Amino acid sequence: MPHWDYSIKELDPEKTAKASGRELRISPKAAREICAAIKNMRVDDAISFLDQVAKKKIPVPFKRYKKKVPHRRGLQGWYAGRYPVKAAEAIIKILESLKANAEYKGLDTERLRIIHAAAHKGAKIKTYTPRAFGRSTPCFEQLTHVEIIAVEE
Q1: Chain CA centroid to CA 78, Å
Q2: Residue 36 pLDDT > 90, yes or no?
Q3: Are 21 and 145 in contact (CB under 8 A)?
Q4: Where are the alpha helices (DSSP H) in 55-111?
Q5: Are 109 and 17 in contact (CB under 8 A)?
Q6: How far apart are CA 68 and CA 79, in angstroms?
Q7: pLDDT tens digits for 40-49?
Q8: 3-class DSSP string for 113-151
Q9: Which of 37, 69, 72, 73 has the fewest beta carbons under 10 Å from its own?
Q10: pLDDT digits (tens, 9 = 90+) for 54-102
Q11: CA angle, corner 110, sides to 118 and 152, nearest 5?
């Protein structure tokens, strides 16, 4: 079993709660944009925001991966956005795990604020599709690691 470590160090363990999702089958680009959107939010607000994203009511602003991304209604201060439903549902599960970890530690779950949310590229699942005349086409799937840390205010 691999040992997973967080990219942020030296936090007070009595005031913080951590949760991570490893080797998730979601887009790293969509996960990165969601993590940027929920950073500095309260955990309950982030869960309700991502629930609205999964229902395609509120778009997530795409600030880095915005090439040929259309305008979306309801974005404040930005023009390009998408509705990454699969990534939003996966990150909701991580946020619920974060709340459960905080509750186990005795922290007040209503006062949790996300101070760190990051998405990293994971392993690649390498498969090949056979084609005509003995050739093949690679079909690689990029997995994603997501880590979230919240602090009690």
Answers
A1: 20
A2: yes
A3: yes
A4: 85-105
A5: no
A6: 11
A7: 999 999 999 9
A8: EEEEEEEEEEEEEEEEEECHHHCEEEEEEEEEEEEEEEE
A9: 73
A10: 999 999 999 999 999 999 998 988 999 999 999 999 999 999 999 999 9
A11: 60
